[in-house]
Each structure stands twice: as C-alpha cells, then as structure tokens.
Write a structure and sequence with these properties.
This protein is mainly α. Helices cover 56% and strands 0% of the residues.
Length: 202
C-alpha cells in the first residue's frame, strides 16, 4: 500500500525550495519497505535546471554549468560576509541540499541551530536529509527536537509516525498519527494522518 507524500517542511521557507519525500509503504510479514524516490526524473527547480545540458540530459560533474557554479559562489560569499546571517546560511544550505551535497548542507543547518536552537524549519530540513540517507535514528531525533519546544507540532508528530511505519512499527505509527488527528483533524496534516491511518490497516 502507498501513502501520500510526507512533507518535511519548515515554518519559514525562505529559499523557495520545496523539499519532499515520497514514501510508499508496502505490506510485508514483519516490516514495511519504503523505497526512497531517488530514481525519478530530475526535479524542475532552479537548482536542477542548471544541471541539465542543452539536450535535456543530466550532465556529469565536469559539465556542470558556469551559471550553477556562479550561483553557488554568490550564496557562499553572502554567508562569508556575515557568519550570523541565518537567512544567507539557510539559502546556501538549501542550495547545497538540493544539489545533493548533504554533508555540507548539514554543517550549515547546524550552524543556524547554534544561533537559534528553536528553528523548526531547520530541524525539518535536517530530518529530510537524514530520511533520504535512511538514518532513521537521526531523522527521529530532529523531529523530537521540534517537539521539545513545540509538543503539539503536527508535522513532527506525523513524521515520527511515518518513520515508525517505514520500520514496520505499526502500533507506534498509529499512536503518532492519532495524536496528530486529536490536535487538529481539519488541518492538512490532520487529514493526511487520517488517510494514513486508514491505509495502514488495509
């Protein structure tokens, strides 16, 4: 069975990058296998457009466009000018993440959290990276950090349910998604949790 996409998104989206995970949950005897959407067509965003050559194919590292390198350098320069500019850091980290430079992106997201440790949007960006790396422990930790200062955050609770379902922990998934519904059944996340609960028992 398949669930709708899980969105690990921030409260303050500054970089106009929509980061999403498509999670398909399939029945098995003990666990639920969730393939990560890493073999789909290249996203049609500003970052990935620069990675396509004139024939529409994805180029190798040697063919990355000058425009892409220029944009990367501009964003890095903005960070270097002011090491406390969290907006510049967020823009650069988002660009790195969309460019599949995950480890570099993580370091800048963590720098933002050193300045402001209550940035739910940054924790969700980290959760996305860790989910894609299939590091579910760190993904869970990032969502729990949000809950430490915002206990009723529906996105964090939903994400914890999705992680649990991915690992075949259906009881925990139900618990998390029921919490989401109890907080606000009419929100987008609340409706998604209700749909996920129905599909979990099918």
């Amino acid at each position: 069975m398949k669930f709708k996409p899980i969105y690990f998104y921030g409260i303050l989206v500054v970089a106009a990058l929509v980061l999403l995970i498509v999670v398909g949950i399939h029945e098995s005897s003990d666990s639920t296998d969730v393939p990560i959407a890493n073999n789909q067509a290249m996203p049609d965003d500003d970052v990935h457009k620069q990675l396509k050559n004139q024939t529409g194919n994805t180029p190798g590292k040697e063919n990355v466009s000058e425009e892409y390198r220029k944009k990367l350098a501009e964003l890095k320069e903005a960070v270097d000018k002011n090491s406390y500019d969290t907006l510049a850091m967020r823009n650069y980290a988002d660009f790195l993440s969309a460019s599949h430079k995950m480890n570099e992106a993580i370091s800048y997201y963590e720098k933002i959290l050193e300045i402001n440790p209550k940035r739910a949007d940054i924790y969700f960006s980290l959760a996305l990276i860790y989910y894609n790396k299939q590091d579910f422990a760190k993904c869970e930790e990032a969502n729990n950090k949000v809950l430490s200062f915002d206990p009723k955050n529906q996105i964090a609770l939903y994400n914890l349910g999705a992680i649990a379902a991915t690992q075949g922990k259906t009881d925990k998934a139900k618990e998390m998604w029921n919490k989401v519904v109890s907080i606000n059944a009419e929100s987008e996340t609340g409706k998604l949790a209700q749909e996920s609960l129905v599909k979990l028992i099918q």
